[in-house]
Amino acid sequence: MSYNEPDAKIFACSQSLDLAQRIADSYGVKLGQVSMNTYSDGEFQPSFEESIRGIRVFLVCSTFPSSDNLMELLLMIDAAKRASARHITAVIPYFGWARQDRKDKPRVPIGAKLVAKLLETAGATRIMTMDLHADQIQGFFEKPVDHLFASTIFLPYLQSLALDNLTIASPDMGGSKRAYAYSKYLQSDVVICYKQRKKANVIEKMELIGDVTGKNVVLVDDMIDTGGTLAKAADMMIERGALSVRAICTHAILSGDAYERIENSKILELIVTDSIPLKKNSSKIRVISCAQLFADVMHMVQNNNSISGKFIM
């Protein structure tokens, strides 16, 4: 379907150009032109190379590390505000710093709250994101937040596999709500992994709650970082009699030895979105684009239509 709405334009931060181009193509407009002036010390200054006065701008930027991505988005929001844009929607497919959603020990920051305040102070009038690490982060904003679910694109793919004896699994207790939502839609069983950590990204102990014997298991999580949890969970489930183990993770951070860990694990397939660009290709990783989902919701927002129809669960 082709669209042509001159009162809305889409721009991208440097590290989200590929996804933004796919979103713009799906939306039906050309991706807006942004130039970047970089100083010798690494400081940078984005500049819009076309007029945005009186229109809605969608700024596409996933704020994964390094922090330059977040800083670039903040500078683009400020530039759009000073260029008299009518509405400034920050489209953040992956909302970085979301794991810092509370004080889990004394004398630590609540990073997600700080990022929310930075975005609002810079001038964002609306936030659009997908599969937040914690739903309560929406409450950190005083502006409207469109929180999209990647299940909208993952569930049709899962159904296309037509797996017998399907069981949905959560890799930890915190993800049980997501796993139950998938299982309710697919009318499948649920198992949950219970893990204890020594420290961040280091698992001390993992136990399985539920039976996976003779089951095709699909692990569901919002992100995959080092891959340690999913690899350990998959190996344990195969040992407990599972026929196969797949994993669905919205945001493919994949840091450190994650690619090697996934390749060497019993995971048959890792299904992710393109909210974060992959560092390299892998035979086990399947990418399902979220571009059409964002483009559709951006049209609904632009036309003041309800977006509730885009939520499968």
UniProtKB/TrEMBL annotation:
Gene3D superfamilies: 3.40.50.2020. Its EC number is 2.7.6.1. PROSITE patterns: PRPP_SYNTHASE. InterPro entries: PRib_PP_synth_CS (IPR000842), Pribosyltran_N (IPR029099), PRTase-like (IPR029057), PRTase_dom (IPR000836), Rib-P_diPkinase (IPR005946). The keyword Amino-acid biosynthesis does not apply. Keywords: ATP-binding, Kinase, Magnesium, Metal-binding, Nucleotide biosynthesis, Nucleotide-binding, Transferase. Residues 9-123 form the Ribose-phosphate pyrophosphokinase N-terminal domain. The keyword Magnesium applies. This is ribose-phosphate diphosphokinase. It comes from Flavobacterium agricola.
